[in-house]
């Protein structure tokens, strides 16, 4: 399938890099830090207990689901309070979290493919997470980064897709949203009027009643190849039309 793509919105977690190892490292780094700076908190909330507190905070605060940074701060605040820790440690603990959160290891295909894609069309980062592309060192590939915290609502809400298209200055039907999550990325983008590309690294089947994505690839290299081929086809068609 070939169609015009004048810009791309790109998910981050589990699209450019896997999040699971980041989450595991965050838990361990925070626990190690608490053992030194707030031993009572580390003892009261070992790794599993801290995960359970985080999950409880998430469940109890649906109004903050678009703001994972606020939820993390709330979890840390609760952990310090319930363990008798020093509340003044909150900012330092959050910075330890945020530093670990932005230590990412991209998929093997991702960096080269991202550079190729960004050289072809403008790319905007569109994420419900709280990664910081400046800290990570990848912002130069993107025209902007729009997160759910900044927007006030996350994917699959159509508003965040529409806001990205407006900032790009491109009609929705000519923006391709690329991501790994079926509901958040593929179905959300389609309902918002964008084209959709599913990065299906695990080879999952499509068992939804919604229409399939416009594109489906196992990695970003395949998307970069598709963009290159589409551009060549468009150039060839233009040449034929001018010759006629």
TrEMBL record:
GO terms for molecular function: hydrolase activity. Pfam families: Hydrolase. It comes from the Bacteria. SUPFAM superfamilies: HAD-like. Keywords: Hydrolase. This is HAD family hydrolase.
């Amino acid at each position: 399938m070939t169609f015009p793509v004048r810009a791309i919105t790109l998910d981050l977690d589990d699209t450019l890099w896997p999040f699971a190892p980041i989450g595991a490292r965050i838990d361990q780094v925070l626990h190690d830090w608490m053992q030194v700076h707030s031993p009572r908190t580390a003892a009261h909330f070992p790794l599993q207990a801290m995960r359970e507190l985080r999950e409880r905070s998430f469940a109890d605060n649906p109004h903050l689901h678009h703001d994972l940074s606020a939820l993390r701060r709330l979890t840390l605040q609760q952990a310090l309070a319930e363990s008798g820790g020093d509340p003044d440690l909150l900012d330092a603990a959050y910075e330890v979290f945020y530093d670990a959160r932005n230590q990412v290891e991209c998929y093997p295909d991702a960096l080269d493919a991202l550079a190729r894609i960004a050289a072809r069309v403008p790319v905007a980062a569109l994420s419900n997470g709280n990664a910081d592309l400046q800290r990570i060192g990848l912002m130069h590939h993107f025209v902007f980064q729009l997160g759910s915290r900044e927007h006030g609502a996350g994917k699959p809400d159509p508003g965040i897709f529409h806001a990205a298209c407006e900032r790009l200055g491109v009609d929705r039907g000519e923006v391709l949203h690329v991501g790994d999550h079926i509901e958040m990325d593929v179905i959300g983008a389609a309902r918002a009027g964008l084209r959709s590309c599913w990065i299906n690294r695990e080879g999952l089947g499509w068992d939804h009643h919604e229409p399939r994505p416009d594109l489906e690839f196992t990695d970003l290299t395949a998307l970069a190849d598709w963009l290159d081929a589409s551009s060549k086809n468009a150039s060839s068609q233009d040449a034929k039309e001018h010759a006629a």
